[in-house]
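Forum > Structural Biology > Help requests

Title: Can anyone predict the 3D structure of Putative superfamily III holin-X?

Hi all, first post here. I have the sequence for Putative superfamily III holin-X but no way to get a structure on my laptop. I'd be grateful if someone could post the structure tokens.
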Amino acid sequence: MTEHNAVQSGADARSTSELVHDLTDQVSTLVRDEIQLATAELKEKGKNAGIGAGMFGAAGVVAGYGGMAAIACVVLALALVLPAWLAALIVTVALFALAGVLALVGRGRLRRGTPPVPEQAVQSVQRDIATVKEHAHR
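Reply #1:
Sure, ran it for you. Structure tokens for Putative superfamily III holin-X below:
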């Protein structure tokens, strides 16, 4: 019984304001440490993402060079059966035709994406506002 009272009186020796002050300090320290941990983690992830994006871009450049080599290969293959100038002209016309088709398809897709306003969401919000106004007037 006396041990219980001694422990209890030791715990009670600190005032409530001291306990609240300690709690505030500990919570502040915890939040600060968590923010530092999150910052370090985001820096590491950002670094990895940056390196990955750079490597992806480099892969695109190398793939572009590969595409140019493939085009040269097609020109040279056609040059075996046609004059070289005609083979190059045929490949050039085919590439411009492909670029035109891609541009037209891309323009169509771009038009579907503009204006960049979520029209369905806006309509839904407007309906919600109208419903709230209607219920407010009742």
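The helical segments are 2-12, 16-78, 84-112, 119-137. The chain has a mean pLDDT of 86.
Shout if anything looks off.
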